[in-house]
Amino acid sequence: LLVKVEHNRSNGRRRKVFISETVSHEKFAVTCCTRTLQSPLESWHRLLRATIMATATAATSATSSNQQQQHHQNYDDEDEFQDACDADNASAACALDLDTALAEAKIAVDLFFNNKFNEAEALMKPLATSSMYHSVGHSVFTYLEAMLTFEQQHIAAASEALKQCLNVCNRYRKKNTLTETIGKTFKKVNYDQYTDLEAHAELCSAEALLLKAMLTFIEDETLTSLIKGGMKIRNCFAMYKECNNILNHRQWQSESSKLHFESGVRMGLGTFNLMISLLPARIIKLLEFIGFSGNKQSGMQDLLTGSQSEGIRQVLCVMTLLGYNLIVCYVLSHKEGDLRFCDELLVKQLKQYPNGVWFLFFKGRLEFMKGNLDEALMWYKKSWKSQNVWPQFHHLCFWELLWVNCLRLDWRESLLFATYLVENSKWSRTIYTYQKASIMCMLKTEDLHSSEVRMIATLMKEVPKYKQRIAGKSLPMEKFACKKTERFFAQQSFLYVPALELMYVWNLFKILGKHFHLADGVYRIVEENLKHYDERMNAKANPTYGVYAADNKALLMLLKGACLRQMNSPLQATRCLEEVITMYKDIKEDHYLVPYAIVELALIYIDQGDKDQAILALEDAKKNYSGYSLESRLHFRIHTALIELKGKSYENIPAGGGD
Fold it and tell me: What number of other Cβ atoms are within 10 A of residue 586's Cβ?
């Protein structure tokens, strides 16, 4: 291979001449491609494509190659040439073959996870209207930007890109005749009739449809969007199962093509199985009725297999496993993720992507879940400062840094990151605003400036203004925040330990158990506020304290009991939690405290090995309490605990890839 750069001194233009020499029937065939140089990445990209086109042409015939060489000799220095792909009327002609498209997509993935976001998108965008893998890549980048910014123009752009992607994929999908469509109902499908390209078109369609469904939920706030999105997800799930059949029941023309296809099937079905298995039983029954099913073991195995392959979606399987073990497990269940396994995954990924924002972030999350708060701070800050192309990535780190500092009881530092989120992020202004106000409430009165006291009231007033509806539904945590602001003003600008309450409902108390001093610090704050509560009740200075007396006392006792459980003091914890349960009839608004206390009791029984008592408590919380704040969040935790206690019989039938 030879690359030569020619420079025309008269007009300052440069052009790169690429010559590919290929031996065919003992003759040298030479082909060339020229174009005006642009950016280094684009030049490299064009040359890569020119290499492929030139090599293919040379292999066709030596004579044709010699003619192209002669044509090159007649080029004038002022001529400027572009690939055929640049012409609007030649988009179909420049669609790359499948192997080349996969190779370029793999390069784009590596660029993306090395923080070269613009370069990755530049590689995908030129052929987004003709090559399905370029179209999927371009759509994913626009989708991520929409999710990170939540700005309407980016959401609209992502929707249009995904629509275009689905159209591109449909061009390559297998076209069935009416007879074939009817025949599929009565006999097995002959998957050998699919070409590799058609098989990949099915997979890419499923991926694009899933992203389009997720985007539907935020494009429109009506119930109609929820139904439309749900139908798209159901169709997507069916397509993934069909892709699994294609994977297992056809002879593949290319092992490389099969490898990349399998990684996509593993990633898609594995994620579906895993996520559906986490849903509460009442939701799963509805999903099974419309064609869904999920099995945790099957999902984990698919993702593990995909993460160990060399397929293009290998890194996405890794991301899903890390997300499940380090985030989902800690938010939606009482169990911990497999931290040792995550450590092994991150060692490999950080070796390949040492400055990748995502894996630096997950490394910080791993240390956070271990209770190593100083190390977590270090890794989160590395992730934050590793790139500035997409500042929205910083918001993920700011969120985590906020809570790490809350567990360190460094309210001033956490307030700094809470302020960043309020001012710069659009994900949930309601939650961010309430969190900032809650953290400020944790500061002692003598540590607050008069302007900060006024700011707390201002923030509390603003919380309901930013409330969102997604797919016609309000976000549970936003509704919770709005109720708390009402309580704040009803109690004459006062709330008990609101930041600790948020830490509890975000399920961060389990980290307290990693180190005794973490739990002890929170415990001391709760004890101090219980003393303050008794003093205020005895003074009867504010009649509204009597109205919400049970609510406030129950909150403090729940937090105290949860702390004591993390400090391995089950008897004391049980007494606190049982006191909360006895206050149910006296609680005016915070009815969520009682079922949450019952689940805490169940977890104590699990720790003590009393399986039967734990099941009774969990069933009690699930069946006898409803209509309280954050109910679905608790049902997720109940469901995962019951799966563990009752075994596989409680899980669902696997979403297999049968005929």
Answer: 11
